[in-house]
Amino acid sequence: MTGQAETIKATGTAVPLLSLTGIVKQFPGTLANDHVDLTVLPGEIHALLGENGAGKSTLVKIIYGVLKPDAGEIRWQGQPIVVQNPNHARRLGIGMVFQHFSLFEALTVAENIALGLTDAADRKGLRARIVEIARSYGLHLDPDRAVHDLSVGERQRIEIVRCLLQKPKLLIMDEPTSVLTPQEVERLFETLRRLAKEGCAILYISHKLEEIRALCERATVMRFGKVVAHCDPRQETAKRLAEMMIGTELKAASHHARGEVNGGPRLEVRALSLKSEQQFGTDLKDISFAVKGGEILGIGGIAGNGQAELMAALSGEMPAAAPDAIVIDGVAAGRLGPRERRALGGCFVPEERNGHGAVRDMSLSENAFLSGHVRRALARNGLINSGKTARFADDVIRSFDVRTTGPSAEARSLSGGNLQKFLVGREVKQSPSVLVVCQPTWGVDAGAAAAIHQALIDLADNGTAVVVISQDLDEIFALADRIAVIAEGRLSQAMPIGEASIEQIGLLMGGTHGAPGESPAASVEGRDAASA
Amino acid sequence: MLLRLEPRGQRSRLWTYASPLLALALTVVTAAVIFAMLGKDPLQSLYVFLISPLTSATGLPELFVKAAPLILIGVGLSLGFRANVWNIGAEGQYTLGAIFAGGLALSYPEAPAILLIPAMMLLGILGGMTWAAIPAYLRTRWNANEILTSLMLTYVAQLLLIYLVTGPWRDPDGYGFPQTALFSSSATPPILFEGTRVHLGVVVAFLAAIVGWIVLTRSVIGFQLRVLGQAPRAARFAGFSQERLVWLSLMVGGGLAGLAGMFEVAGPVGQLTPSISPGYGFTAIIVAFLGRLHPIGVIFGGLILALSYLGGEAAQIDLGMPNAVTGIFQGILLFFLLACDVLILYRLRGPRPLAGGA
After folding, report:
1. Number of CB pairs < 8 Å for A and B?
2. DSSP labels, A357-419
3. B230–chain A Cβ distance below 8 A for any pair
């Protein structure tokens, strides 16, 4: 962006592409948007920053016509409008790439894009146009490949191409980088900068501060449904941005004392191979690793590369073929079910909270019983010891500062971060010998994330072997002693965190999906800070 | 004016319990309309159908006699339904329980009651379990839908009963009627109150409801069933075996249905005939839902639907209406119950106001 353009923006003489005034949206129980104002100028990359639950998604759904505001005014190129539905939004020139893609796995790229078009006439010469757009924006995409063969990054490109076919004036990206490798992130940023230069404004939703500092020119910060700050993210530190987002000063997790690990491994995985139960799942191939007490092993990787299968194999939900494929504290546990593994000292926090780690319509007491009844002996003679169970739940609530009314509150009444604190606390409070957590801070606000990280570090310091499976590399670099990467169901050799560079990890994450000839030296802005 | 349904975001506790009451009220109103359309005085008809059965000296005891099999079966079904195990074939399991127990009663008519009655109860349970084991095996081994298999087996059970009472087990002194000999007095469960037909099975039904309540709310097994029904992945995460719970659900449901069949043929019916059930196994499904899949609620549901049987008989006698009145009443009740249950998750709203701003 040239200095001149910036001056124009600063003085506000340009007609805004989109301006929202006093947008209000009430959901049962929460005011998702409370008189929100937002202005997006033509050709700018504008960040919408906020924690989960701050109201960002609601706001963009209103812009895209998915939701109707209860009050407020939307102006598009100066004209007041009512966006009737997403079709209407697309006709106006608003495109959106959602966090979760809506693609048919069994169809090809071109077929998926054709299905997304509302006007049948657009399908003429579609293939050629896909190729043309993909080429001119550097979005490598073969229109004839079936979607189930594609990596998540490639799938995202389909969604972007789908939007670009409509020649949008505004492109909304909802948390686009959460599923990408660092290299893919950088390539996405290049595409977005190019689009912006051609005059297409981009509304970029994220809670990843470094990315926003690297990409965006202006930021609107939301908290609890309200706009709390406007800033130029390039002029702010990540810490400052985080404080605007959370509203308090950040407390960093106390650092894990490294190099004091000794003794034998508490968790060993030997040549574990397992067929996925899902049709488009990833089979685990010959996975081996060992974790000692007091050590945190981070397993990085892009979603869908076998993390879910590895978690199920470790927790006992999918037993392995050989008994000694998984060894917990010296006992062959490969053929054992989850309850028997818990008896051995294995505790687990799955990625999905709702319906997997917790039952939404059950109380916190009952959810504490769900995985805690074996190690905490919460049942007697086949009956639930409800007093003891409630005390256990209450202990977790107090120790982990879970904001709730008490053990009898239903799990669904908790926010994502609070529920996650409860689920991590439920396992930590069972003094496990081995703890495996998958995506411990996924969709969790920064305060809760810091508390969860601290709990994992404390647990390791007390001699537990901890495995953190995460797509968030920053998280792994902040927590782990060693890192391994899972790609296409294979696990790389684990290496000490100090010897791992983010580029190297990124290439491992790309697996065979990584574009050939990629320079390992390609710098990834912002990410470097985490490894320092 | 179009009404809209707006998601509440969570289950409404109020409507969980208000829905069956509203459904009952709507059913009564609809029944009155139907009576009127048939040319009867609606209020008089409702009185005959719903109140007159309870006014006679034997009315209330009869209500409990009719409710006993409904409660027994309904308790078993509600435990299974909690775990999303949809046993629709309780009618067949009831029939097999009656056949197993009846066979024993016919084979050892002289055995002392103190041995024969418990043995018949056990065989009744075993009969129901045997029949429910088939869908359980097909579901756990081949992933066959238990709704279809258990339902289809109901008709097989009915044909088996007809074969037995018209063939090998037919009463030689019965003038060729398709029925067995009457059971001996030692095969008849004790009557608890002189002058009524209230038998041991009524007490057993109430006991089953109380035990079912404790199992569902206090026991680890009940917890496992509830988790499996609400979040199958969480059940797996916790290490609860789905296979075991499917078997357990069908065994409990089948066993209690078989026990209900035993008490019905040994008590009120007194022999095996092709018509040993006025559809108790199917009506118990309505009972289970009306009772909110809660064993104590099932007691109330059982009593209400038992009344529909008594009312049907009264309507036949006093109003000259066909027996189908009972089935119509039950069907309308289920229809309204399902409709009203929408209000647990949604609230009714008027037409959507225009979005502000333009």
Report:
1. 90
2. TB-TTSBHHHHHHHHHTTTTT-EETTEE-HHHHHHHHHHHHHHTT--SS-TTSBGGGS-HHHH
3. yes
Residue B255: inside a domain, yes or no? yes
In a domain, B15, yes or no: yes
A528 in reach of chain B (CB within 8 A): no
For residue A466, the SS3 value is: strand
A373 touches chain B (CB under 8 A): yes
Chain B residues closer than 8 Å to A27 by CB: 9
Along the 532 residues of chain A, how does pLDDT read in single tens digits? Answer: 444 444 444 444 578 999 999 999 987 656 889 999 999 999 999 999 887 667 888 899 999 998 899 999 999 999 999 998 888 998 899 999 887 778 888 888 888 888 877 666 667 788 888 888 888 887 888 888 888 878 777 888 888 888 888 889 999 998 887 667 778 888 889 989 999 999 999 999 887 777 888 899 999 998 888 898 899 988 888 778 877 876 665 444 445 555 556 668 999 999 999 998 876 678 999 999 999 999 999 999 877 789 999 999 999 999 998 999 999 999 999 999 999 999 999 999 998 888 999 999 999 999 999 999 999 999 999 999 999 999 999 999 999 988 888 999 999 888 778 899 999 999 999 999 999 999 998 777 777 888 999 999 999 999 999 999 998 777 888 899 999 999 889 999 999 988 887 777 877 876 643 333 333 333 333 333 333 3
Here the tokens at position A240 are 């400052």
Task: Please judge whether A71 and B356 are an interchain contact, meaning their C-beta atoms are less than 8 angstroms apart.
Answer: yes
Query: Angle at Cα B164 formed by Cα B160 and Cα B165, nearest 5°?
Result: 120
- How crowded is residue B13: how many other Cβ atoms within 10 Å of its Cβ? 9
- CB A356 to CB B234 under 8 A? yes
| Interface TM-score (ipTM) > 0.90 | no
Do A44 and A197 touch, CB atoms closer than 8 A? Answer: no
* Residue that is last in its domain, among A378, A403, A430: A430
| Domains: count for chain B | 1
Q: Would the CB atoms of B355 and A68 count as touching at under 8 Å? A: yes
Strand-pairing partners, residue A172, are A96, A203
On whether both A426 and A437 belong to a single domain, the answer is no
Closest A-chain CA to B215: A383
Residue type, B357: G
Do A276 and A341 fall within a single domain? Answer: yes
Residue of B nearest to A427 (CA): B238
Smallest Cβ–Cβ distance between A28 and the set B8, B11, B233 belongs to B8
CA–CA separation, A259 vs A481, rounded Å?
8
Domain of residue A185: give its range.
3-93+168-246
Domain of residue B337: give its range.
4-349
Among partner residues A69, A316, A366, which is closest to B357 by beta-carbon distance?
A69
Instruction: Flag if A82 and B357 touch (Cβ within 8 Å).
Output: yes
CATH number at residue B311: 1.10.3470
Is the Cβ of A394 closer than 8 Å to some Cβ of chain B? no
Tell whether A382 lies on the interface with B, counting CB pairs under 8 A.
yes
Minimal Cβ distance to B357: which of A80, A315, A342: A80
Taking CB atoms and an 8 Å limit, are A82 and B234 in contact across chains? no
> Given CB atoms, is B2 within the 8 Å cutoff of chain A?
no
B318 found inside a domain: yes
Would the CB atoms of A317 and B237 count as touching at under 8 Å?
yes
Q: Would residue B356 count as lying in a domain?
A: no
CA B120/CA A51 separation, integer angstroms: 65
User: Is residue A155 in some structural domain?
Assistant: no
Longest CA–CA span in chain A (Å) reads 78
Question: Which one of B230, B233, B358 has the shortest CB-CB distance to A362?
Answer: B230
Residue A242: both structure tokens together: 């985080």
Please say which residue of A231, A246, A261 terminates a domain.
A246
